[in-house]
Design brief:
single chain; TIM Barrel; two-stranded antiparallel ribbon; 11 helices; globular; Delta-aminolevulinic acid dehydratase; Aldolase_TIM; porphobilinogen synthase activity; magnesium
Length: about 325
């Protein structure tokens, strides 16, 4: 039945009416805040390409996490920026590594906060790649044991969720087996299942000091032109034991988030990545966009597409804005 009997504007006439019929609601509980931890004491180093984002030493990280908890963000994901790198990325699994110390400190101070850790080698290897390099190529199978060892070291430190971001084939299976063998049956895996070889990662590589020293990552990260391939990657990760699957980046891949959620009906994470963050910050600094309005619209779109949780550098701000609203 059409106009004039049907008038969709009736349900838009006031904020109360719009709220009553709203299909998608963004909440602080949907957010995960990424943090970068580095060596030293009293360190707070701004990331030039990401205004408002810093590298923290473990002691100053606790102050930052206190602010995260205060605004109601339920979880963080920790990225390590070690002082030293080597060919094998041995700092990634060191018991006294920067991530391991950060996890212990955060869980001791904030035991109810959900602590996730990035499991990868790129920030720890001298060559900057996410796996073992053999004869100039990334050796998939040789990397799996190292990733598994890293994940166990994070679980031992107290991580609730480990998040392999390397895109090596079979790494979820290797990590799940290693965690279970070590008795960490309750530590969950959030797999970067559909991680694209994206141009949106530039500012992150400055933050994590993880630029590859040769070549690029297109032999293991996904081609941005492919959508169906993401469904295969997700299916394999779920079969291997992933508890949560991720699509990264988020904004340019809303169609992939939608397809993954519709096909699998499992928890889906979306990563609102550094380039997406930096573009909004730059435009807002020039007065070209309303930062708050744009950010809330972007994140709502990610949730509307099917994301159950969103990793975003805007998490503290968004939680504050939502509380004010």
């Amino acid at each position: 039945m059409g106009f004039p009997v049907t008038r969709p504007r009736r349900l838009r006439v006031s904020e109360a009416m719009r709220r009553l019929v709203r299909e998608t609601e963004l909440n602080a509980g949907d957010l995960i805040y990424p943090v970068f931890v580095t060596e030293g004491t009293g360190v707070v180093v701004p990331v030039e390409a990401m205004p408002g984002v810093n590298r923290f030493s473990v002691d100053t990280l606790l102050s930052e996490v206190e602010r995260v908890v205060a605004v109601g963000v339920p979880g963080i994901i920790i990225f390590g920026v070690p002082a030293e790198k080597d060919e094998a990325g041995s700092g990634a699994w060191a018991a006294d590594g920067v991530v391991q110390r950060a996890v212990r400190a955060v869980k001791e101070r904030f035991p109810d906060l959900l602590v996730m850790t990035d499991v990868c080698l790129c920030a720890y290897t001298s060559h900057g790649h996410c796996g073992v390099v053999q004869q100039g190529r990334i050796a998939n199978d040789a990397t799996l044991e190292i990733l598994a060892r890293t994940a166990v070291s994070h679980a031992r430190a107290g991580a609730d969720i480990v998040a392999p971001s390397d895109m090596m084939d079979g790494r979820v299976k290797a990590i799940r087996a290693a965690l279970d063998a070590a008795g960490y049956h309750e530590v969950a895996i959030m797999a970067y299942s559909a991680k694209y070889a994206s141009a949106f990662y530039g500012p992150f590589r400055e933050a994590a000091d993880s630029r590859p020293q040769f070549g690029d990552r297109r032999s293991y990260q996904m081609d941005p032109a492919n959508g169906a391939e993401a469904l295969l990657e997700v299916a394999l990760d779920l079969e291997e034991g992933a508890d949560i699957v991720m699509v990264k980046p988020a904004l340019a891949y809303l169609d992939v988030i939608y397809r993954v959620k519709k096909r699998f009906q499992r928890p889906v994470a979306a990563y609102n990545v550094s380039g997406e963050y930096a573009m909004v910050k730059a435009a807002a600094a020039h007065g070209w966009v309303d930062e708050q309005a744009v950010v809330l619209e972007m994140l709502t779109a990610m949730k509307r597409a099917g994301a159950d949780m969103i990793l975003t550098y805007f998490a503290k701000d968004v939680a504050t804005w939502l509380k004010e609203k």
